[in-house]
Amino acid sequence: MDFKIMPKSALPDWVKKLTILYRVVAPVPKHGQIVFDEITDPSTLTMLYPQSVLPPKKYLFPQHEVMLNYKLDGSWFEANIESEPTVVLGIHTCDLHAVKLFDRIFSQGYADQHYQARRDDIFLVSIECLTPCTDESFCRSMGTLSATSVFDLHLIDLGEDYAIEIGSDRGESLLNGFKNVFNATSTDEERVNDRLKDKWAEFPYRLDFDVTELSGLLAENFSSEYWDELGEICLACGQCTQVCPTCYCFDITDERSLTGEIGQRTRTWDSCQIDMFAEVAGGHNFRKSRAARQRHRFMRKGKYQMDAYGLVGCVGCGRCAEACLVGITPVKTFNAIHKRQLEKEEA
Amino acid sequence: MRRTLVSEVVQSGSIFTPIPARIVSTEQLTEHEKRFVIALPEGLALHHSPGQFLMVSVFGVGEAPISISSSPSRSNGSFELCIRRVGDLTSAIHQLERGDIIGVRGPFGRGFPVERLRGKDLIFVAGGLGLAPLRSLIDEVLDERGNYGLLTVLYGTRSPDNILFKKELADWEKRRDMTLSITVDQPDESWFGEVGFVTSLFDDLYPNPRNAVAVVVGPPVMYSGVIKRLRSLNIPEGNIWLSFERRMKCGVGKCGHCQLNHIYTCRMGPSFAYSEVKDLEEAF
Fold first, then answer.
1. pTM above 0.90, yes or no
2. In chain B, which among 231-260 make CB contacts under 8 A with chain A?
3. Domains identified in chain B and CATH numbers
4. Which end of chain B is more exposed for a tag (fewer CB within 10 A), N or C?
5. Is the reported ipTM for this assembly greater than 0.85?
6. Full DSSP string of B92-121
7. Alpha helices (H) along A168-213
């Protein structure tokens, strides 16, 4: 492991320096919650935070994005690629795993150049989680409690210092010229090892089975009555998908300017929980019921993404559970399906 | 060599950028369906295979997936779309006229397995607007007729008024190197032909199952009945090809609307062998 040491007291100075060169985004308190937002004043920075309302995905894949500008008569049109060199600080490891999945999705087949441009411009500075975020998070069960390779820099809180793991040359360049960064000694290495070892005890497993069984379990239970039970209570509000770090489904809409000469094509986050999502022009809807739509969501998280991209589609952050107004949670759902499967096998 | 439309799209900087194309002519085929002949900008080639689709834009209105209804063998700088007026976008397209500009990007998706049809006896089954993408394949086969075995086209549609491509159907009917059967399920006084769903045309079908490949395109409700008939004729599951219609916003396997289990219909399809999808929930 290649890492450096930075005294915690030096962090604000370092961040201040970064803000001169880059847009810097970090978790900050807002209305009693934590959100990722642009910072100019490092004193608002909160590296120790429970859970952000939205994941930092909005900097890779914004809620609204103009993709195309054009004249209505078709005589002029131009792709709109928006990106800005950005450092995202303090990313939890669950959200880091979500970026890894996004990288696969948006590069497969025809690459999404809008995503790619932002991805190339972004520096991911993650932080090791040492205590669980919320009662709903279940990163340990999903295998996302350790950093995955996509980070540029990864911080580990050692009390007085941060250990900074170097993930890329670009990441290392963020430390260039900053004098309060030191090479790690063998003592530092031990401190890091202890930290990484000790933290496991803090995080309970919350799934009643191993995550590697999840895909098969869901495959067996496509016709489970449990989906109907979810359909009975689901409000189809789509909150679960809006807060999810691995949801990326989108709609594309056109808007005309008031002058009627030019227009824009915009991409907006969409939700598979909304009634019309899978309806085709003739009116046939492939997922008409709320039960079918909730099932689709959980199938994507636990099975389909694994089948398509080789990565599990849920990173265990628990945001959807926090957001759901009727208490639908992935942990309850997966465990309930598992319990019924066991009962089925015993019967 | 001419550049392809899709490479032009990619080079524009975004796979979501449509390229403006000109409407060369329009023809009202039925009350709700219109044929559009479209020309790409000078120097661009569509380079599609039958069964692929384009994302078609009306600037200021939106975009939708439309299958290409002309064959590659007859795409001489222009191509055809057959569009049913069914939503905002298609209604807007129907109002356009010769000389107007639409946006196109693509072709996208996996078309019909033309290579695997060589030397085979072909059974093409179309329901309603499904004839549009199949026509691309039919013309492709007719233009290389010697490369294929027997050709049977079964076409079912709602009523005589809904029959598409009447000119083409009349030509096909006259040909001695293919068999065309048409049925409607809501006949009127003018109709002297077959009456019933497209499955009723199977009563007179006697294929050699060892050498037959079927390609089926129609509305979602049509598939299970047709597949049952094909299977009862012992045509292997891998030799029954289908084309799936789904909601699509991006055409390139990202937006999620067309997702069928782990499969993005727009990218891995829209044509699939029945063997590939028969066990997928929500496929039919």
1. yes
2. 245-247, 249-250, 252-257, 259-260
3. 4-108 (2.40.30.10), 114-283 (3.40.50.80)
4. N
5. yes
6. HHHT--TT-EEEEEEEESB---HHHHTTSE
7. 169-173, 186-198
